[in-house]
Amino acid sequence: MKLKQTLLGLALTAALVLPASAANVLEVNGKNLWSQAQAHLVEGGTTYVSLRTITEALAPNAAVSWENGTAWVRGSGLTLAARPGDQWLTVNGRALYIPYQVRLENGRTMVPVRVLAAALGGQVDWSAQVGVTLTPGSGTPGAPAYTEDELYWMSRIISAESRGEPLLGKLAVGTVVLNRVASGEFPDTIYDVIFDRKWGIQFEPVANGTIYNEPTAESVLAAKLVLDGARAAGDSLYFLAPELTDNHWTMENQTYVTTIGCHWFYK
Hints:
Shape: elongated
Structural class: alpha+beta
Order of helices and strands: HEEEEHEEEEEEEHEEHHHHHEHEE
Number of domains: 2
Distance between the termini: 23 Å
Radius of gyration: 20 Å
Number of strands: 16
CATH architecture of the largest domain: 2-Layer Sandwich
Strand order of the largest sheet: 5-6-7-8-9
Number of helices: 9
């Protein structure tokens, strides 16, 4: 069965762009925490907030600490880690994507409000009249929207195809797999896309057996990120490394999208 469209369309780091009339409102339990949370907009219109301030508002029973360059949130069934400079935060085994990185500003760990709300089991709403409203939820994130089997195979295809590539390149390979799952032209599960032989073997690691190798740690991370909504390379359905193959059918018959690392992506 196809992965739910809600997963494929999920964008935890989607921009939250506010008009001037509501640009300084961040309401939690009836209080405007915009100034206290040092909320502000960064690249792409993403709203960044203080991890400590919002955690104390949405998960008051959890403790926030700073240890060896990483902000930690622990308590009430919650373990969250956010390290400035990383393009993700981890929470209870999940990894949520932050394309503009976790930031350290004025001694505060700053993260996108939508990502943090998702990590804390809360909800973000917006209206022109009110601005941003954070609604407390369970205080902990929900279960991943993917299975262990999907993570197993996604991490292995990413590792086998993009070992040595940057994180963005790994996300792009995972995006191609999920784009194929969503397309009517390909099988409808991650496993079946990877092992698809309708027009011949689709991925070189299947032919040479490297698909069965233990994945790298960053490939597991990339698999978690892409399965939880991170995307790269748009709606690409194909990729290749031109310098490593003599088969240029994709280049000659599909539409170029972008280049990441050694891979060229096409749709």
